[in-house]
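Researcher: Sequence recovery benchmark, item below. Answer with residues only.
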């Protein structure tokens, strides 16, 4: 007996569950949000077909609903993970910005390095992932790579007091 039997609808549920778990695991990594884009594109075609199966083939209805449900849950898990990761990372970045602002107000210049704030490179990476800081001509610059996808960056504008998104 093989693992996947196309004539057995229950084996299709198992395959959907295994694939959705695999894609979710890969997508729920920092910078991995775009991995879920491929299944979403496929779902744009597959869901209308699934609606047809659910309406026209009552014997397959429960199995098809199960498969659709599995993939919808996977998309929601990945989206929720990345939304929360982005919020958490931005919250950490805002704390660093506040520390830089306080240091600048206290000493009249920006810190030459984050170690002056008691934050080493390892701690910065743990808080923001791929990121960086420098002080050039008395003007600080803090940035971190977007948590959704690699290449896009969030840069803090210390003059305007806002985060600016810079796509790749």
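Model:
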């Amino acid at each position: 007996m093989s693992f996947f039997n196309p004539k057995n609808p229950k084996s299709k549920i198992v395959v959907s569950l295994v694939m959705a778990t695999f894609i979710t695991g890969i997508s729920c990594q920092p910078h991995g949000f775009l991995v879920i884009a491929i299944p979403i594109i496929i779902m744009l075609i597959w869901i209308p077909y699934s609606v047809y199966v659910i309406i026209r083939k009552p014997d397959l209805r429960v199995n098809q609903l199960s498969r659709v449900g599995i993939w919808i849950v996977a998309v929601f898990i990945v989206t929720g993970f990345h939304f929360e990761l982005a919020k958490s990372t931005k919250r950490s970045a805002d704390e660093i910005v506040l520390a830089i602002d306080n240091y600048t107000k206290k000493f009249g210049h920006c810190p030459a390095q984050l170690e002056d704030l008691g934050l080493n490179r390892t701690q910065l990476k743990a808080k923001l992932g791929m990121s960086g800081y420098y002080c050039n001509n008395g003007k600080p610059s803090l940035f971190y790579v977007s948590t959704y996808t690699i290449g896009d960056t969030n840069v803090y504008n210390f003059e305007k007091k806002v985060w600016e998104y810079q796509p790749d």
